[in-house]
Design a protein that fits this description.
This protein is of the alpha/beta class and 381 residues long. It has 15 helices and 17 strands. The strands form four sheets. Strands 9-10-8-7-6-5-4-1-11 form a nine-stranded mixed β-sheet, with helices on both faces. A three-stranded antiparallel β-sheet has the order 12-13-14, with no helix packed on it. It has a three-stranded antiparallel β-sheet with strand order 15-17-16.
Length: 381
């Protein structure tokens, strides 16, 4: 089986404040142990070098948490030392998440100097009332300033993260937020609905959210507004100008490979013999930092052949343009004939659409994507 492209995800798990809707592996702190954590990250990467299998890193993503809590010096050192450990593509896309509350003009300029090519700003809303309801640690003024800092630092490629379906949000309020974001002309917009996740404050004390019909109106009007302003939807919640898809995330959704270093980071690795393995690193930052070399992994499993098709579909069908049957064979090592009858059934129900070698979800299929994907798992419907 040919090996797919390889990305690198780096998890920096600390935040100034834990948001009530957040179920990510993030932890509040007043002081980030950046020197100790950086050294552990580098050892973690050295331990994973055997999984590279001759490939260079094509995309890199620093996520969190709030990575921009780290100093510019720490990020610069990290980027330089990573390049000394593992080969990076000359065409590397290096994304870093940043929150407006920790944004500084000089810091953003230093991030770019360190090799970050793309910033992803966690705006969520430009409405101060909504920001307070979401428990965000920044104001709308800080959101506007952060975007100005990214532009002045020379980031031609930056993403704005924006939520909709917020507490008591109206269609007018959701559109107003989106219009403000569009006016900044970002290359990429992540626009997604707030969902209540288990083990969050919002799950214990749910806010009053728009009802289903209101959410559908917000989604429909928002998608039309984005399209009218030149943003093509290429994934469930991702919109971009031409040529500015997030390559790192597309690699996830195309069932590519990625190394994950940092507390709670995940990896997915393919092998020439057809095996596909998933790894998870120790979740708690202190546990992760106290691990001895060679013992950062908390769980490892090999995907069973019976579940590989479902795993592939769970990712690939999120993309508006779907996948090709030849890509399925290349990325899984399986024959596409294994799901021919299932594909025909879903096409007959107008949930999937096949044209030659290409398969994608229809508009109806995207509305019921979880149910469509479940059909490809062994214990599905």
């Amino acid at each position: 089986m040919p090996l797919p492209p390889l990305g690198l995800y780096i998890h920096l798990p600390w935040c100034e404040r834990k948001c009530p809707y957040c179920d990510f592996n993030s932890h509040e702190t007043q002081r980030v142990p950046e020197e100790q954590y950086r050294q552990v990250l580098l050892q973690d990467l050295r331990d994973d070098m055997r999984l590279r299998q001759g490939r260079e890193i094509e995309t890199l993503f620093i996520g969190g948490g709030t990575p921009s809590l780290f100093s510019a010096k720490a990020i610069s050192l990290l980027m330089r030392e990573i390049a000394q450990i593992i080969p990076l593509s000359p065409n590397l896309e290096a994304t870093m998440e940043a929150n407006p509350g920790s944004a500084e003009a000089a810091k953003f300029a230093a991030f770019k100097e360190a090799g970050i090519t793309r910033l992803s700003l966690g705006i969520q809303s430009f409405d101060d009332t909504q920001l307070r309801a979401l428990g965000r640690a920044h104001t709308s003024d800080q959101a506007h300033a952060a975007i100005a800092f990214a532009q002045s630092a020379g980031f031609s490629s930056f993403n704005l993260d924006l939520m909709h379906g917020l507490p008591k949000q109206t269609l007018h309020g959701a559109e107003a937020d989106l219009r403000v974001a569009i006016d900044y002309k970002p290359a990429h917009l992540s626009w997604y609905q707030l969902t209540i996740e288990p083990n969050t404050v919002f799950n214990k004390r749910p806010p009053l959210l728009p009802v289903e019909d209101e959410l559908a109106d917000i989604q429909q009007h928002g998608e039309a507004l984005l399209a009218a302003n030149g943003y093509a939807q290429y994934e469930v919640s991702a919109y971009s100008k031409a040529g500015f898809n997030c390559r790192h995330n597309r690699n996830y959704w195309s069932f590519g490979d990625y190394l994950g270093i940092g507390a709670g980071a995940h990896s997915k690795i393919s092998f020439p013999d057809g095996r596909i393995e998933r790894y998870t690193k120790r979740r708690q930052p202190q546990d992760y930092m106290s691990a001895v070399p060679g013992h950062f992994v908390s769980s490892r499993r090999t995907l069973q052949r019976s579940e590989v098709t479902g795993e592939f579909m769970m990712n690939a069908l999120r993309l508006n343009d779907g996948f090709t049957l030849s890509q399925f064979v290349s990325r899984t090592g399986l024959e596409a004939t294994a799901f021919t009858s299932k594909l025909e059934s879903l096409c007959a129900r107008e949930l999937l659409e096949r044209k030659g070698d290409s398969v994608k979800a229809t508009d109806l299929g995207r509305r019921f994507l979880d149910s469509v994907v479940a059909e490809f798992f062994p214990d599905g419907p």
